Structures are given as structure tokens and as C-alpha cells.
């Protein structure tokens, strides 16, 4: 069975670098010209588009959503990572992490949401504690086990 649905597309001639679905069913699209677009499906079935302005001219390489909060991370060719987080009815907060000296090729949060795994062309893989970087409203914090 093939299912078809009208999906949003930025109608931009630039190449898409990352497509990521959040647990809230929002779609993050990052393009090579650093457009960061979030599509959120409303109750009426229509998609609402939000642009997030990232303060860099570097080329994006990868992106991922946080597993529990309304936050995402984007890696760049310069080795920089931006973490963007937002609470309801507030503006986006953007934090910058400088840990790599070459392109970030992969980023992903741990299931707890406290550690961001980053891999780079500088031959390093780092685990970054993001606990203090976000407005952590993580549910079931008591159920998280550290080993």
C-alpha cells in the first residue's frame, strides 16, 4: 500500500541538507544556503511555517531534534554546532558550541537528552553535556539512569 499526502516543501531551488522529524511531528528542513525552516501541522490540517535565523554564514552539514524538548542542533563545515531551543510563545534561544576544527558530519542526542554526540572530519568524536545549555523541561527526569 502506498500512502500519499500533501507535504510541505520550501519551494527553494537550493539543496536540502537535513530533514528531521521531531517527536511532536514537526519537520525541520535545513538548506545549503542556511535556511532553517520548521513546519508544524495545525489542527485544521494546514502546515504552519516558521523560519529560524542562525547567526552564521557557514554551510550546514547535519541536524537533529532533541528527544524531549523543543530544541534542535545543527552542525556546520567550520566545526561549530548551534543548539536552538524554544518555549511556547517565546523567541528562539540559540547557543553556539565550538568543539571541532573541521566539518561536523553527524550529531545526535542520547535518549536522556543530556548528551550530544558529535563526529567530525577532524577525526574526533565528542560527547557534549548539554544539560546547562537548554531550558530543560525534561519529563521523567527521575527515571533517567546514569551508568
Supply the key terms.
disordered C terminus; Methylamine Dehydrogenase, Chain H; single chain; globular; mainly beta; 4-stranded antiparallel sheet
Mean pLDDT: 83
User: From the alpha-carbon coordinates, what is the Rg to the nearest angstrom?
Assistant: 16 Å
The major pleated sheet works out as:
4 strands, antiparallel
CATH class: Mainly Beta
Find the count of extended strands (DSSP E, 2+ residues).
11
Provide the CATH topology: Methylamine Dehydrogenase, Chain H
How many helices? The count is: 0
Helix content: under 10%
Low-confidence stretches: 1-5, 136-147
Q: Report the portion of residues in β strands.
A: 35-45%
Q: In order across it, which strands form the biggest sheet?
A: 1-2-3-4
- Structural class call reads mainly beta
CATH-derived architecture: 7 Propeller
**How many domains is the backbone divided into?**
1
CATH superfamily: YVTN repeat-like/Quinoprotein amine dehydrogenase
Order of helices and strands: EEEEEEEEEEE
Amino acid at each position: 500500500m502506498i500512502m500519499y499526502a500533501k507535504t510541505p516543501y520550501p519551494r527553494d531551488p537550493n539543496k536540502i541538507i537535513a530533514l528531521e522529524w521531531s517527536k511532536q511531528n514537526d519537520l525541520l528542513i535545513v538548506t545549503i544556503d542556511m535556511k532553517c525552516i520548521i513546519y508544524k501541522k495545525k489542527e485544521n490540517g494546514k502546515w504552519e511555517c516558521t523560519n529560524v535565523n542562525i547567526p552564521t554564514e557557514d554551510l550546514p552539514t547535519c541536524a537533529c531534534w532533541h528527544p524531549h524538548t523543543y530544541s534542535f542542533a545543527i552542525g556546520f563545515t567550520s566545526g561549530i554546532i548551534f543548539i536552538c531551543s524554544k518555549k511556547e510563545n517565546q523567541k528562539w534561544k540559540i547557543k553556539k558550541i565550538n568543539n571541532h576544527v573541521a566539518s561536523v558530519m553527524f550529531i545526535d542526542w542520547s535518549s536522556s537528552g543530556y548528551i550530544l554526540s558529535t563526529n567530525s572530519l577532524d577525526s574526533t568524536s565528542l560527547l557534549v553535556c548539554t544539560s546547562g545549555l537548554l531550558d530543560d523541561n525534561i519529563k521523567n527526569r527521575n527515571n533517567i539512569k546514569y551508568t
